[in-house]
Amino acid sequence: MPDLKFFIAPAVSSLLTRVSHFLTEQGIKAYLTGGLVRDMLLERGTADIDIAVAADALAVASRVAAFLGGWYGPLDETNGVARVVLAKSEAGERYELDFSTIEGDIELDLARRDFTVDAMAVDLEEFIRQPESPRLIDPFYGLDDLHRGVIQVVSEDAFSADPARLLRAVRISAELNFRIDNQTEAFIRRDSQLLTEVAGERVREELLRLLAISDGRKILAYLDGMDLLAAMIPELAQTKGVEQPREHYWNVFVHSLKTVDAVDFLLRQGAWEYAAGEEVLAAAPWSDELTEHFNREVSHGSTRRYLLKLAALLHDIAKPQTKATDASGRIRFLGHGGEGAEVAARILERLRFSVREIKLVEILVTYHLRPTQLSQDELPSRRVIYRYFRDAGEAGIDLLFLSLADHLAARGPHLNLVQWQEHAQVAAHVLAQYLEEESLTVPPKLIDGHDLIALFGLNPGPEIGQVLEAVREVQAIGEVTTKDEAMAYVEYWLASSSPRK
After folding, report:
1. DSSP string covering 411-433, please?
2. pTM of this prediction?
3. Looking at residue 106, what is its pLDDT?
4. At residue 281, does pLDDT exceed 70?
């Protein structure tokens, strides 16, 4: 194959050289396989490294982790698969090395792989010696499918052997902009319910990687068409066909999918095809600080952007059970935010999301209507903004964008540009107050509980917390700036029959 070229980043090459020398000294035969070989042939960078070893991969990975100073964890003890995770490099990359055990020879091992484009291998030692022209082991013509842009299973039982591959097929096709061939699609539909047997941790990983894809407007709809979305999150199926008030263009299910698309659009990660995109986007706030905020990691594998998209998917999950029609004939969904947060939490617990991830999504689903209640025909006051961030914390930023995305996905092609600009203006004002005036949300401490006990004779208990919160609020809106003013306000507060509004 004279025209065959492998691309590899210098940092990855250096890492593989260290691993190769270590394994050679141990007398262990090793091959580069899977996504790494595929991505090198496509000249794509990757932080995921697949290595097949002719030895017990669990033991090998443990020793490699100790050698490299990384973290070791078994992924599949039955089939001999383990992972080594290395700390982030200076360039910000966190490398993951997945070691698998070769049973038989390398060709037999590749026959048990998922897709032809992943069923290629290169001898690791040979690759280190001659990285530009190693022999490609390709018994299932994966290189041909790579050139054709096709995802095709190696065997008919690929999904029954590992149902997590059902999601992986969709994810790889989306990442590479490849198509899944017709026969493989038929196998996906046939085996879709097997996804319910996959461990929550593995579903979480694939779901987050799907949410990481920018401008993934068709991914969720495709998952639904393959019966995978309902297998992964059966609660969503109940939202299908649920009618909404007339200002909504789509039913609850379609609206939820469109809200995810709208999040990508507002975070400058995708397009919006239902209105004048440039005018719509120009009204929405954006800044370098917001880019940094949404790129911030929440837990391993997740960022605030990914979790905002997940909250967008789940924000109306409780609408079916809260739907009611009032005396005027208007459809209402009273309490669907709070109930939806409980449903979302159960879903994420089942999929083994972390406590931090679940808490963020819970807040977003609970309060997703709150930003639209911040003002009535005028910009929200400092007191209103303070109370908003008091309740939502840093998630208040995310909530503003969820609210904007919800607006776009409610109106669709019938968007009223003036109403949209008014909504975006409120969001921009609240963000500006939050980002420019830290004292508005985190006022400096002027008095504490000891002062209230010593100077006002209060007893330890809930009342002290109520007084301190009242002081923080008037500080945030600028009515109190010194300790003496705070003391005077406490004296007024205690003397009043109720706190000053």
Report:
1. HGGG--HHHHHHHHHHHHHHHHH
2. 0.84
3. 95
4. yes
